[in-house]
Write a structure and sequence with these properties.
The protein has 1098 residues and is an alpha/beta fold. It has six domains: 89 residues, Ubiquitin-like (UB roll); 65 residues, Alpha-Beta Plaits (2-Layer Sandwich); 337 residues, Rossmann fold (3-Layer(aba) Sandwich); 128 residues, Flavodoxin domain (Rossmann fold); 184 residues, NADPH-cytochrome p450 Reductase, Chain A, domain 3; 153 residues, Nucleotide-binding domain of ferredoxin-NADP reductase (FNR) module (Rossmann fold, 3-Layer(aba) Sandwich), CATH 3.40.50.80. Helices cover 34% and strands 18% of the residues. A hairpin with a 3-residue loop joins strand 3 and strand 4. The protein is globular, with a radius of gyration of 34 Å. Its cofactor is FAD; FMN. InterPro entries: 2Fe-2S_ferredoxin-like_sf (IPR036010), 2Fe-2S_ferredoxin-type (IPR001041), 4Fe4S_Fe-S-bd (IPR017896), 4Fe4S_Fe_S_CS (IPR017900), CysJ-like_FAD-binding (IPR003097), FAD-bd_FR_type (IPR017927), Fe_hydrogenase (IPR009016), Fe_hydrogenase_lsu_C (IPR004108). It comes from Tritrichomonas foetus. Its EC number is 1.6.2.4.
């Protein structure tokens, strides 16, 4: 073995290996695309270049190590050379996909974008922030095209916000960051069961599924028999045509419309067969709920018929029926969860999910045998297909009315036909049939419906309104195969029209008030029999009250090209405690009710309005409405280098608002985006003045609240400091280093004595609020020339800081001086600089990705930055408290059980030391220092709970300190045994880099095994001689683990890195299930889904 130095750390490595191999042993990543361990190195790609001995560059794959060699992989010159070699080696416009290439690109060209919107899984739509590239196409689709704006405010969830689940955002998302919430796992688990599986197929499915398999790019090919055949191959026993129920709701809605007209009921009647429309009305226009048709959605009517009549006719038990709705509508996933409809359909899947299942099962679409729909429900009209297009339902209803008054005389497919459009469109017609004169409106898209209902004059004489949320209708549904543009969906419309024209039966089948299947003459329903439902507001009472209270609250609107205006608008909206909206999504009526309007608007091109503001400005210039009751403020954003077009849109807006009588509450401010800080200082100054004019809460600078602190005289705070909100003060009574003396980082077991009344449960997390070192806090306060004994009243919005604190308490307990500096911190010192030279010195640090900033951040934490910049800049305490990151609680797994230690709790802390050897992890440093005995502590509920069935086998995977939450589980097993109870077997797989680092823990584990609390133990150490990972243990002993895994009750407890490893373990267990259980992949997936997984991250 010989010693070398890699990135200032000393390592011992074997003689005769290359630098690349040595770095792999040390855990240091070096990019490469031409290297393979089994093939002689060639130095082809040049990506593995490193700096040796401080000057020379060398290929690490070809250079052998020698004693005392100094290696740097992080040098700026190394990275530049690697990036250059990558461009030369990958001489293509777009690198091919692959995990190795992706890993190299992430290393060489890291992205720092922060996703404000959190990961979410709603009934219909899921958001995965790690896939989001912040292109904002989804925001513009939702706000500017669909006219909902549910994605405008990233802090509002999909569930609780304005989202109507139409799924149009998923059609435009190129990375699948936004996608329909998958129902595939649930459907797969039922496909392998003994239940009778029924599939209900919507008409748009029949003209879109082939789009995913077409080798020549043809769109809209009719594929009825293929769809049915593929469904049967997937395991669906019965496949029914949902067009029958389209006919049925057309007839029921015809009855309902005529009844309302004759009885002078609530008009206009609005269709209810579009679930996204129903969501829109229930969320945003609840006054229109009585106008909605009371008829159930088509698929739910058919599902109820299957459960009531058909299942028994097919000799299937109604309680063993599993019904899936195959549709192009993402909102149908919301629909199946409705309280009123929950007993009808079990799951809804989109066409994209159907295609994914076909590919998952390895089914060759082109070789699928044609098959026909099952009977009954096969006798359908041509109009039932038309209902997949905008205007199709209206056509079907008008045909029914024609038949009632005129019989079938002169009825042709062209009569009452409307040409569906693939863009927002409002069509209003007056149709005379017999003695009836009907005023109808067809709204293609929610935006046109909003236009209609915002004008009382337009809607007051309308009898029937048909709304399709997706432009063009269901043939452009959010769950269909993605097209480059919705205009490419024209062939789907054409194919639907051809089905109607070719159909022998033009009308829905009705005979003496009974609905029948024309093919088999089977009476199936009676008019009105169990076909109705009801709708209700989705808002809870507190949300309804909140809307009432919005009258008079300032409205924040933006017009944005690249997102800067949107970002500022969100910051302003945050201190008004409401959300922002694109200008196009706001009506003048709403603006007048809110009375105060805040506009933040960019200028596009040669003095034009951004796309999401142009419609609003056009409305202002064409309306004669009086808005003299409105007050406003404008922040214009532009580039001063553009000359006369600088902030032109803001100036035009200001001029037009004044012309219409609106009154400015402050002068228009121009923000120059070409300023060194991008205009952030201008925004900070403007937002501060705005908050003072409005008399509202605190604005934000960067992403932090601007806090107001008030100095007070209160000596009691010195004598008896307030504890952090939500925390108790406990005492560290014992610290024991459990790793060998020569192993680093050190692992320390810490025992904390709990204050009276504080209790915990098995599986809980221990929340520790650490402190900065006292000497560090004092040096920072001294540099700022603050008095550490001063007392302030603070209303920070922070959930932890108490109302009264001293300066010393702030800088010791609450402000993170050890963490990385924020852009807001540099901005604050820039704004407070004493002279131009000081400003120029800070300017390069204002941009996160500048080389100067990246290099400076490597060697300076927040406290060090403050001490350096405070020499020439003296910011206020208010601003510093706002822009310094606050100390947040660190979570540790409780490594003891309350059954044996009710008054104390154990945790394990692995001391964190960064690469430079000088910087450290704040909390572990705080915990292991001997002089610290008091600690702020709270408990948080964890995910680890012992199985209710105590005989369930358990498999534990623990990585390093991830063993901590396993200890209470094992101690609980000891308690159960002492009570004479029978418990299931337990396996433990423990992994770490080096066995020696956790020698004390391993002795404890073996003690548990000796006492019979663990049946089998397995160890994997990735840096020791065996070089094993916990995944390798599963692969090495498949039969052993199958002994436990073959029991469906087996529970898995995993604690380690949350990403990657759990999925790999699941994949390996899937292969074990296939091999040991003699199951197909689909059967194994269904079987494995029954096992419970409990995953904790470290």
């Amino acid at each position: 073995m010989l010693q070398i130095r890699i990135n200032d750390q000393i390592y011992e490595v074997p003689e005769g290996i290359t630098i690349k191999e040595a770095c792999k042993i040390a855990g240091v990543y070096i990019p490469s695309l031409c290297y393979h361990a089994d093939v002689p190195s060639g130095g082809i790609c040049g990506l593995c270049v490193v700096k040796v001995d401080g000057s020379a560059l060398a290929y690490s794959c070809m250079t052998k190590v020698r004693p005392g060699l100094i290696i740097s992989t992080t040098d700026k010159e190394v990275l530049e050379k690697q990036q250059k070699h990558f461009d030369q080696f990958m001489d293509v416009s777009h690198p091919p996909p692959g995990p190795d290439i992706e890993e190299v690109m992430n290393y060489l060209f890291p992205k720092k974008t922060i996703r404000i919107r959190q990961a979410e899984k709603a009934n219909a739509i899921s958001f995965y922030p790690e896939k989001c590239i912040e292109c904002q196409i989804c925001i513009r689709m939702c706000g500017d095209v669909v006219d909902i704006g549910a994605l405008d405010d990233p802090t509002v969830s999909l569930k609780g916000g304005k989202c109507i689940s139409c799924g149009q955002c998923t059609l435009t998302c190129s990375t699948n960051s936004l996608t329909e919430t998958s129902s595939i796992p649930k459907v797969l688990s039922h496909l392998v069961s003994k239940e009778a599986k029924f599939l209900l197929v919507d008409p748009e499915v029949l003209v879109s599924t082939n789009d995913s398999f077409s080798s020549d790019g043809l769109v809209g090919q009719l594929c009825i028999e293929k769809v049915v055949g593929a469904a049967r191959k997937l395991g669906f026993k019965y496949v029914f045509d949902n067009r029958y129920s389209n006919d049925l709701i057309s007839l029921e809605m015809t009855h309902e419309l005529l009844d309302r007209i004759d009885s002078k009921g609530v008009l206009p009647l609005i269709n209810s067969n579009c679930p996204a429309l129903v969501n829109f009305i229930e969320k945003s226009n609840k006054d229109l709920i009585p106008n909605l048709s009371s008829i159930k959605p088509p698929a739910h009517i058919l599902a109820r018929a299957i459960r009531r009549f058909v299942a028994s006719g097919k000799k299937e038990k109604p309680d063993s029926v599993f019904i899936v709705h195959l549709t192009g509508c993402v909102a149908a996933k919301d629909q199946v969860k409705r309280m009123q409809l929950t007993k009808d359909i079990d799951e809804a899947i989109t066409v994209r999910e159907f295609v994914e299942m076909i590919n998952m099962f390895g089914i060759d679409w082109n070789s699928v045998s044609d098959s026909e729909f099952d009977q009954p429900f096969t006798g359908v009209s041509g109009a039932s297909s038309l209902m997949a297009t905008s205007g199709g339902l209206t056509t079907s209803i008008l045909r029914n009315i024609h038949e009632r008054f005129n019989g079938n005389v002169n009825l042709t497919p062209e009569m009452y036909s409307f040409v569906p459009k693939l863009e927002t469109n409002l069509s209003m017609e007056t149709i005379k049939i017999g003695s009836k004169e009907l005023n109808i409106a067809i709204c293609n898209g929610i935006a046109s419906f909003s236009q209609l209902i915002s004008s009382p004059e337009m809607i007051q004489n309308i009898h029937f309104v048909e709304v399709m949320t997706c432009q063009g209708g269901c043939i452009n549904g959010g769950g269909l195969p993605k097209l480059k543009t919705r205009k490419l969906a024209e062939p789907r419309i054409k194919r639907i029209k051809e089905i109607d024209i070719a159909s022998i039966q033009m009308l829905s089948a009705e005979s003496n008030g009974t609905y029948i299947d024309m093919n088999i003459k089977l009476p199936l329903f009676k008019h009105g029999e169990g076909l109705s439902t009801h709708y209700e507001p989705q808002e809870r009472a507190n949300n309804q009250n909140k809307k009432k209270l919005l009258v008079g609250i300032p409205m924040v609107m933006y017009g944005s090209n690249k997102g800067k205006s949107t970002r500022y608008a969100r910051l302003v909206a945050s201190f008004l405690h409401y959300s922002s909206s694109s200008m196009n999504s706001v009506t003048l009526d709403v603006m007048k009710k809110r009375r105060t309007a805040i506009f933040i608007i960019s200028t596009f091109g040669n003095g034009c309005f951004p796309q999401n503001a142009a419609k609003f400005y056009q409305l202002l210039t064409t309306t004669k409405e009086d808005i003299s009751s409105v007050e406003y403020a404008i922040l214009g954003i532009g580039d001063s280098n553009k000359g006369p077009t600088y902030c032109a849109a803001a100036l035009k807006l200001d001029e037009q608002l004044k012309k219409m009588g609106a009154k400015p509450i402050m002068d228009l401010v121009k923000l120059n985006s070409s300023d060194p800080d991008g205009g952030d200082a201008t925004y900070a100054d403007w937002s501060q003045k705005l908050s003072e004019v409005l008399g509202t809460g605190k604005p934000r600078i960067g992403m932090a609240f601007l806090n107001k602190l008030q100095k007070i005289e209160d000596k009691t705070v010195h004598e008896k400091p307030s504890r952090p909100i939500g925390f108790e003060i406990a005492e560290i009574i014992e610290k024991q280093i459990v790793s060998p003396p020569d192993f680093h980082p050190r692992l320390t077991k810490i025992t904390i004595k709990l204050p009276e009344g504080l209790t915990y449960e098995v599986g809980d997390h221990v929340a520790i609020l650490p402190c900065n070192d006292v000497e560090v806090a004092e040096s920072v306060i001294s540099a700022l020339q603050y008095a550490k004994s001063d007392v302030f009243n603070i209303n920070s919005g922070d959930a932890i800081i108490p109302a009264k604190v001293t300066v010393m308490q702030l800088f010791t307990q609450y402000l993170d001086l050890n963490g990385p500096p924020t852009t807001s911190l540099y901005q604050t010192f820039y704004n407070s600089a004493m002279n131009d030279d000081a400003k120029k010195a800070i300017e390069p640090l204002l941009k996160e990705e500048s080389p100067e900033r990246m290099e400076y951040d490597k060697t300076h934490n927040t406290g060090e930055v403050i001490k350096e910049l405070a020499k020439n800049s003296k910011p206020s305490l208010d601003a510093l408290v706002s822009c310094i990151s606050h100390i947040t609680p660190r979570l540790y797994s409780a490594a003891s059980s309350p059954e044996t230690q009710p008054d104390t709790v154990d945790i394990y802390a692995n001391e964190v030391i960064f690469d430079d050897g000088k910087r450290y992890g704040l909390c572990t440093h705080f915990l292991v220092k001997k002089e610290h005995v008091k600690v702020a502590i709270a408990f948080r509920r964890g995910k680890f709970k012992y199985p209710r069935d105590i005989e369930s086998p358990i498999i534990m995977f623990a990585l390093g300190t991830g063993f901590s939450p396993m200890i209470p589980l094992i101690v609980h097993r000891q308690q159960l045994l002492s009570e004479g109870k029978k418990i299931g077997p337990a396996f433990l797989v423990f992994g770490s880099k080096y066995r020696g680092s956790f020698a004390g823990l391993i002795m404890k584990i073996e003690g548990f095994k000796k006492d019979g609390l663990i049946n089998e133990t397995f160890y994997a150490h990735s840096r020791d001689d065996n070089k094993m990972h916990i995944q390798d243990i599963l692969k090495k002993y498949p039969s052993k683990f199958w002994e436990l895994w073959q029991e469906p009750k087996t529970c898995v407890f995993y604690c380690g890195p949350e990403r990657g490893i759990p999925d790999e373990l699941k994949d390996i267990l899937l292969e074990i299930t296939i091999a040991e259980g003699w199951l197909s992949r689909e059967e194994a997936m269904a079987y494995n889904s029954r096992h419970d997984w409990h995953i904790e991250g470290i």
